[in-house]
Amino acid sequence: MKALRGDFLTYATGYGLAMLLTGAAFALVYYHLAAPETAFAAILILGLVQIIVHMRCFLHMSLQRSARADLMLVLFSTLIIAFMVGGTLVIMINLRQRMM
Amino acid sequence: MARVSEPELIHAGLNLRNHSPAALRRLESDVFGFWVFLMSDALLFALLFAVYGTMLGGAPSADSQFKIGPAFQETWLLLTSSFTYGMVSLSLKLGLRRRWVALWLGVTFCLGAGFIVLEVSDFLDMFAHGATPEASGALSSFFVLVGTHGLHVTSGLIWIVLMAAQMAVYGLDDRVKINLIRLGLFWHFLDVVWVAIFSVVYLRGLLA
Lengths: 100, 208
Prior knowledge:
heterodimer, A: 100 residues, mainly alpha, 2 domains, 3 helices, B: 208 residues, 77% helix, elongated
């Protein structure tokens, strides 16, 4: 029973944190709490933290041995995504600046 | 079919009775295979994000069409549906009766359907203001990115209906449980994608 309460707490914590982080990101925009650039940087960080919370609490990624294969797959995919998205944006934005 | 019990929390909801190592390994590889699919799907979304990013300079942009209210409501619905799907997994793990699993699945379905209804009405509102996909590259890439996510949620809703049918016909046997676990991964994954969408697309657009 104790383990199951732990599982429920994992979901509840995940939901609470997700709500908090989402609320913070929307509040930044809604109440104009910061300059646009600062606000966007903060939103990106909040989003990243929220994705990690979702991965941990809802998708049960963990650093334990039993889930290592999943973790490796996710980390490798993240690396590929970073290369592809980052590379695309660098090349295309650079191209746009040169065409101006 | 051998039934197995879960040694520890690897994937919540893996509650198959009568532990057998072979069955557990098969289940682990089934879930791992689904992770491989999810990550290839993540690549698809990542490249749609990249396309959206390169199209941002285009005019008319989607930015002026964003409304913070609907975006927040959609986010709330999807986040809450992720939590209620967690309750589906937990009911499975607890070995609760079928109706509890069905109840939480039903709640998840309603929240997901609410998300789709809001998103479609938001799109229609944008169309009414002349922000159609053919108006500019920025708008095309916006509708492809957000629309692809919406289609994924829609297929998730269809999947929920199919799971309800499987539960009604077969009961909660091992195969149905594994399918419910995979559906859970899919549903939580769509939530992760939505976090990226509201941060990078909606909130950035509202700041601009």
